[in-house]
Amino acid sequence: MKASKTKRSTSWSDVKARLIHFDHDGLVGLVHDLYTADKSIQIFLHARFGLGEDILEPYKITISRCLWPDMFRNQTVSVAEAKKAIANYRKAIGQPEGLAELLVFYCERGSGFSVEVGLQDEDFFNALVRMFEQALKAISKLPDEQRPLLMERLEAVCRISQNIGYGVEDAMKDLLVEYDIYD
Length: 183
Fold this sequence. Notes:
Blueprint lengths: L11 H8 L4 H14 L1 H10 L8 H11 L11 H14 L3 H22 L4 H19 L6 H14 L7 H11 L5
Helix pairs in contact: 2-3, 3-5, 4-5, 4-6, 5-6, 6-7, 6-8, 7-8, 7-9, 8-9
């Protein structure tokens, strides 16, 4: 009988150990190769280093495409990809005001699309209500002067959600009361 070798999966520790051997130019070259290899890495690095006029734009484009797809082009809704865009922003820079903006934007796009096309998807609506709550939590952590505009936008989301059904508006109203951010 042959003895089986236990394979250990490669991890960040292995990569980190190899990075020690790189000089400055080697590291810059590696980051360049990563930058040119994948658009999502470009977006990440632009956000991390504060490059570009609107760091949130690429994340908003993804959220918009995922939550308000072009039905005539056979695009489909993808809550998972929209959430991933927010998670990627959080990893890249995660500034509280930017995060709150993306969460509110998610709610606006999701509710707007639902009303416009008459979407009937309970899982989508549950995700929308959960994101609405995350937006409220994020707004509650912002300085008082940054809250009013974002809250106005969430209240507008709640108002248009009366046309969705499935108890979405009621759940949002309950959350607005629970997170009474104006105190």
